[in-house]
Amino acid sequence: MEAHGPAPTRRTLLRSGAGLGAAALALVATTATAHAGDRRPRRAAAYPPTHWIPASTSNYRVSSRPTAYPIEFVVIHVTQETFPDAVKIFQDPARQVSTHYMVASADGYIGQFVREKDVAWHAGNKDYNNRSIGIEHEGWVDDPAWFTDEMYASSAALTAAVCDRFAIPKDRDHIIAHSEVPGSDHTDPGPLWDWDRYMELVNQG
Ligand SMILES: [Zn+2]
User: Fold this and answer.
1) How far away, in angstroms, is 55 Cα from ligand 1 center?
2) Ligand 1 centroid vs 45 CA: distance in angstroms?
3) pLDDT score, position 46
4) Contact indicator for 79, 139 with CB cutoff of 8 Å
5) 123 and 132 in contact (C-beta within 8 Å)?
6) 73 neighbors 116 (Cβ within 8 angstroms)
7) What is the residue extent of each domain of the chain?
8) In this predicted model, which residue has the larger pLDDT, 103 or 13?
9) CB-based contacts of 52: which residues, under 8 Å, 6+ apart?
10) What is the whole-number distance in angstroms between the Cα of residue 22 and the centre of ligand 1?
11) CA–CA dist 111, 134 (Å, integer)
12) Which one of 46, 53, 61, 134 is CB 3.0 to 4.6 Å from 99, fit for a cystine?
């Protein structure tokens, strides 16, 4: 495991974020929505800023969700890798794994690797992959120092926005651990993930 500080790849990713702060990006998104004449309720959670870092096209399946499959779950993961190492895995066509989103530990930066309409391969269960959005979190299940305030806040805002978009109930029957996916042999996000805190944040979103 590397030190907690940012690795070169990570700095490159941050530079590619166009230098806009979160508030500026949120403002851009709000303006774009208003101009689109969107009539959805205003109380819907605002999407936090996300950064497109495409996975290898060999690591997910193109689909047309929610038409092809309903999106009914958000699956919460912990990477067991650094953010930059996980990016390499999602972009390696031999690995056959991906996620829709990954949240960085230090600052809550969100990478998006697969479009929500497409099926990411994260849950180890075809049916759950078809019907879920996967969110990875940088860190290790046995070291809660990786689970920062910034990570919880950013991830919860993302999950709240996903739930609003697809009308997914914001409860633990629908926002689930990878370890709770039927047939899963993974333990993430593990017992040190603070579900009470996370769900409170999601429901504030
Ligand atoms: Zn997982």
Assistant:
1) 16
2) 25
3) 74
4) yes
5) yes
6) no
7) 47-204
8) 103
9) 111, 112
10) 27
11) 12
12) 134
**Residue 196 dihedral angles phi and psi, to the nearest 5°:** -60, -45
Alpha helices (runs of H) in the chain, residue ranges in sequence order? 8-15, 22-35, 83-90, 126-130, 149-166, 195-204
Give me 119's structure tokens: 């099926």
Residue 6 has pLDDT above 70, yes or no: no
- Give CA–CA dist 54/108, Å, rounded: 18
pLDDT of residue 14: 40
Q: State in Å: Cα 64 to ligand 1 middle.
A: 23
Q: Which helix (H) or strand (E) holds 36?
A: none
H or E element: which one contains 42?
none
CA of 27 from ligand 1 middle (Å) equals 32
- Contact between residue 124 and residue 185 where contact means Cβ atoms under 8 Å apart: yes
Q: Which fold has domain 47-204?
A: Lysozyme-like (3.40.80)
pLDDT at 43: 56
Structural tokens at position 134:
């996967």
User: Distance, CA 185 to ligand 1 centroid (Å)?
Assistant: 9
CB 50 within 8 A of CB 108: no
